[in-house]
Amino acid sequence: MTGEVDLAFDEADRIPAVAQDADSGEVLMLAYVTPEAVERTRETGLAHYYSRSRDELWQKGETSGNVQRVSEVRVDCDGDALLYRVEQDGGACHTGHRSCFYRTLDGDHVGERVFDPDEVYD
Question: How far apart are CA 37 and CA 19, in angstroms?
């Protein structure tokens, strides 16, 4: 079966997107996308998301240089979540870690920083 998949965006026109390292399978981050973010991702091959805090579309790595090259976009069974399979340059997390999932619920750190956020962000 082929063809476009209908996406089930919420009332705010957003759905979650998980970024996963295409080679290792490591989960890197979770963010939200809008129809425009999905389209820009498809057009450029670079991950685009929607910032709820800034209320704007953004390209991952726009400031830090830690871009995500998207090799494939998968859709979940309900059409209300995406999986971006990516090649990650540097860290995915704004804290400087490779993955946003760098700590356990008990507060133990399980990931190392790959860049210093104070040197990257104003």
Answer: 14
Q: Work out how many domains the chain is built from and give that number.
A: 1
CATH of the domain at 82: 3.10.20.810
Provide the CB-side half-sphere exposure for 55 (13 A, CA).
1
Identify the H or E element spanning 43. helix 35-44
Between vectors from CA 33 to CA 51 and to CA 117, what angle results, nearest 5°? 40
Q: What is the pLDDT of residues 25-69, one digit of tens each?
A: 999 999 999 999 999 999 999 999 999 999 999 999 999 999 999
Burial 82-94 (b: 16+ CB within 10 A, else e): bbbbbebebbbbe
Tell whether 53 is covered by a domain.
yes
Q: Is residue 120 in a domain?
A: no
What's the pTM?
A: 0.92
Q: Is residue 106 part of a domain?
A: no
39 and 13 in contact (C-beta within 8 Å)? no
